[in-house]
Amino acid sequence: MSRLETSRGYRAWLPAGRRTDERVIEAWRPLLSRLSARFDLRPEGPGATALRELTGGLAALAGIEPALTIKAGAPAIALGSPEAAQAALAQMDAQALAPEGFRLRFGTANSRKASPAEAESSGGADAAAEPYAVLLGGSDVGLLHAVFAFLRLFQLSEAGPPAELDRTEAPRSALRMIDQWDNMDGSVERGYSGGSIFYRNGRVLSDSPRIADYARLLASVGLNAICVNNVNVHREETKLIAADRLPDVARLAQIFGGFGIRLFLSVNYAAPIELGGLHTADPLDEDVKAWWRRTAEEIYAAIPDFGGFVVKADSENRPGPFSYGRDHADGANLLADALAPFGGLVLWRCFVYDCHQDWRDRSTDRARAAYDHFRPLDGRFRANVVLQIKNGPMDFQTREPVSPLFGAMPRTNQMMEFQIAQEYTGQQRDVCFLVPQWKQALDFDTRLAGPGSTVSRIAAGEVHRFAYSGVVAVSNIGDDDNWTGHHLAQANLYGFGRLAWNPEASAEEIAAEWSALTFGTGSAAATFVRRLLLQSWPVYESYTAPLAVGWMVQPHYHYAVDVDGYEYSKWGTYHFADRNGVGVDRTLATGTGYTGQYAPENRDRYESLADCPDELLLFFHHVPYTHRLQSGKTVIQHIYDSRFEGAAAVEAWIEEWRGLENEVDAERFAHISDRLQGQAENARQWRDVVNTYFYRKSGIADEQGRLIYD
C-alpha cells in the first residue's frame, strides 16, 4: 500500500483500520459472515461500487471477508441469515423509495433448527435466532448510500448490531453539489490544502487514484454533483469543452459516475470568441446560439450523463451578457437552450455587483446587488436554469444575514451556495466548524410564502415546487496528505454533505458523528474534538470582526487582521468606524434601504434598533460606541470583552489538547498542536489590533483595565 493509503488523515472518516474493540467485532461477526447482493453488474457502475465499498469496509474494520453471492437484479444486499434476509426482502418494495433513497432493516429470526448442543443450552428451544440485515436501494445509487449508512452504524457501534431497526432515508434536496476552484496549472483559487488533484501543468490528471478516493469521500456523505474547475475560467480551463479535451473530461465523469455523482464544468461566457473564432458572444446572436448548440452536442456525445454548466458572468471583471446590452436571463437562456435537449442544467451564479465603487459614495451598497440585479427577472429564466445564491448578501463572511434573494423569485429555480473553504474564517489554519453557521442559514424563516418558508424547505423545492433546487458549496480539498490542510477542517466537508442530505440534522449530531468516526467511538480525543468544533465558530467570531461588520482582513489575502483593509477600496465593503460610532446604516428610514428587500416581518426586525439581533447589529445599523446591546453591554465593551475571551479560549484548547497526547496518533497530535499554536498567535494579533483600533477611535477605556495598546 502507498503512504497515502495508510495515512489516517488521507482515509478521513472512512474505515481506516481494524476496530480496537474485538468484543464488538465478535458481536457483529454472525451478521457479517454471509452476504448476497444484486445490482446492475456493470463493473464501473454504482452497484459494483456499493459492493466494493461494503466488502472493503468490512475487511478494514473487522478483518472479515464474507461468503459472497452476486447476481443481477433490483438493487439490494442481504447480510446474515439468508432465509430471514430473503423473507424480509420479499416484504420490501424498492419502487416505493426515491431513486437515491434507501431502506435499512435489521432483525433476528429463528431461521433454522437448533443443534442438539444449542437446544440443550437454551433449555430445549426448537430453533436458534440468527441476525440479518437488508439494504435496499431505490436505485444502484441508493444502494451505495445504504452501504455507507451501514458502515457508519458499524463504525459507531459500541455493542452488537441492532436487534430491530427499520430506517428509510432519502435526500431532502435534489442537487447536493461541490464546486472546485481548481485551475489547470495545478493551483486552487482560495485553496488552503495544497495543489489541485485534478490538474497539473495544463493537463487533466484523469488517471490519478486520488480522484476516485475523493469521489468516495463525497459519495459517503451523500453528495451527487461536482463542478471540477474554477468559476473564474481562465484561458486553459476554457478549453475543457473543446473536442480534444473531452476524452479526459469523460474519464473524470466516468470515475464520479461510478459513485453516483454527475460532473459539471464552469464555462467562460466568452468561449464563442476564444474557442469559436466568432467576433461576439452576444446571447441573441444566431451564430453564437449555433456555436453553443454544436458544443453541447459534442459534449454529450462524449459524456452522456454530463450535468451541465456553472457560470460566473458579469462579476468581478468576468465576461457576460452586460457587454452586449443584455441581461442575465438572456445570458442564461442562451446556454439553457443548448443544453435542454440533453437534460443539462445551467447553474448561474448571482454573485454580481459593481466592483468599482467610490468609498465616498454611501448610496451604493454591495449588499443590495444580487437582489437588485435578479429579482426583476423572475419568471424569465428557462426551466433548466438554476440561480446559485450565496448564503449571505456579501461574500462568505464570518457573520452575515441570509441573502434576501433566496426565495424571493418563486418562478425561478434556486440553490443555496455555501463555502467550505474557510476564505474569511481561518483558511483551514484556524479551527472554524461552519455547520452551525450553515444550520442558522438553512433554518432561517424567510416568511416569503408565509410562516415556515425556511431556507431548507426552499432549497428542497418544498415551498415553490422548483423543478431543480438544492445546495452547493465551494470545496476545501487539495493534494495535501490529509486533503484539507488542517485535520479538523475535514469536519466541514463531512458536515456539509450530511447537512445537504438532511438539513434537520443538528450541528451537535454531526460534530459527534465525525469526531467518533475520525478519532474513535467513546475516546477522550473524540469527546474533546466534538466540544472544540462546536465552540470554534463563536470563538473565531469573538476575536475577529465584531457584530457582523466583516471585512477587517488584509486585502486579497483575507487571513490576517487589517481593520481598514477594505475601508477605502473599490470593492464596497465598509464599516464606517469614526470617533462617534461604527456600523453600516442599511435601514429604509435613514440608510441604503437594504432592509426593505426582506419580507415585512424580517424587514421590521432588522429595521428596528431595539429588535435587531445583537450578532447582526453593525451590519444593519451605525451606532454609538456607548449603545447598549440586548446583552446589556455597550458596543465598545462587547468589542473589548469578546476579543480577550476569544484569544483565551484558544489558549485553553491548547492546554486541553496537550493532555491528550497519548490518546491520538503522533502525526495528528503534532499537526493539530502546531495548528492550534498558530491560531493562538492569530487570535492575539486580532485581539490587540482590533482593541487598539477601537480604543483610538472611541477614546473609551476598557472597564476591566486590561492591557490595550494605545
UniProtKB/TrEMBL annotation:
<dbReference type="InterPro" id="IPR011099">
    <property type="entry name" value="Glyco_hydro_67_C"/>
</dbReference>
<protein>
    <submittedName>
        <fullName>Alpha-glucuronidase</fullName>
    </submittedName>
</protein>
<dbReference type="GO" id="GO:0045493">
    <property type="term" value="P:xylan catabolic process"/>
</dbReference>
<dbReference type="GO" id="GO:0005576">
    <property type="term" value="C:extracellular region"/>
</dbReference>
<dbReference type="InterPro" id="IPR037054">
    <property type="entry name" value="A-glucoronidase_C_sf"/>
</dbReference>
<dbReference type="InterPro" id="IPR011395">
    <property type="entry name" value="Glyco_hydro_67_aGlcAse"/>
</dbReference>
<keyword id="KW-0858">Xylan degradation</keyword>
<dbReference type="GO" id="GO:0033939">
    <property type="term" value="F:xylan alpha-1,2-glucuronosidase activity"/>
</dbReference>
<dbReference type="InterPro" id="IPR017853">
    <property type="entry name" value="GH"/>
</dbReference>
<feature type="active site" description="Proton donor">
    <location>
        <position position="316"/>
    </location>
</feature>
<dbReference type="InterPro" id="IPR029018">
    <property type="entry name" value="Hex-like_dom2"/>
</dbReference>
<dbReference type="Pfam" id="PF07488">
    <property type="entry name" value="Glyco_hydro_67M"/>
</dbReference>
<feature type="active site" description="Proton acceptor">
    <location>
        <position position="395"/>
    </location>
</feature>
<keyword id="KW-0624">Polysaccharide degradation</keyword>
<dbReference type="Pfam" id="PF07477">
    <property type="entry name" value="Glyco_hydro_67C"/>
</dbReference>
<feature type="domain" description="Glycosyl hydrolase family 67 catalytic">
    <location>
        <begin position="163"/>
        <end position="483"/>
    </location>
</feature>
<keyword id="KW-0326">Glycosidase</keyword>
<comment type="similarity">
    <text>Belongs to the glycosyl hydrolase 67 family.</text>
</comment>
<feature type="domain" description="Glycosyl hydrolase family 67 C-terminal">
    <location>
        <begin position="484"/>
        <end position="706"/>
    </location>
</feature>
<dbReference type="GO" id="GO:0046559">
    <property type="term" value="F:alpha-glucuronidase activity"/>
</dbReference>
<keyword id="KW-0378">Hydrolase</keyword>
<dbReference type="InterPro" id="IPR011100">
    <property type="entry name" value="Glyco_hydro_67_cat"/>
</dbReference>
<feature type="active site" description="Proton acceptor">
    <location>
        <position position="423"/>
    </location>
</feature>
<keyword id="KW-0119">Carbohydrate metabolism</keyword>
